[in-house]
Amino acid sequence: MRRSIIAAVVVGLVVTGCTKTEKDWANQAPQNDGANANVGQSLQLRNAFLLGSADPATPAPEQALYVVLVNGSSRPNRLENVTVEGGGQVRLAGPVEIPPDHAIGTGNQPIGTVSGARGTSVPMTFTFQDRSKVRVMVPVMARTGQYANLPTTPTAPPSASPPATAPPTAPTSPDTISGSPSPTG
Q: Could you write out the DSSP letters of every residue in 161-178?
């Protein structure tokens, strides 16, 4: 009898439209393998990862740094530098200017290279012109599967593209350790 009542209530709610059956895509976390974070109110760091060697047991001496930076404000910003906690050096491909309402780092090109980083996840701090910073654990991806054909060095400084056409570089799940984690994407 109790199951019948519960079933009737559920059916009644669905029929009257009192349940939310659609997926709320706006409140989902970004789906990618890299690190994700919000930096303040309008700057987003998406899908940050290092491209390692094909064999994780043999680390690459230099790893490509991939990240998508989205500036949702009306003011330009710039990535000033990236530091590696515990040692290592980051060399950006050139000035990383992020125009208002644009994204940088799209198009499967690294924004720089990292040398001296070890491990499967590397703590890195991204510092911007407006003095904002975010620290994230950047995973190291093996150069296999979907990462096998990605470039290992930048060919030019990153260029801007509108955020509406700026998909993340590779699919799956977020990994943020500090800053303003992005539960909403």
A: E-GGG---SS-S-----S
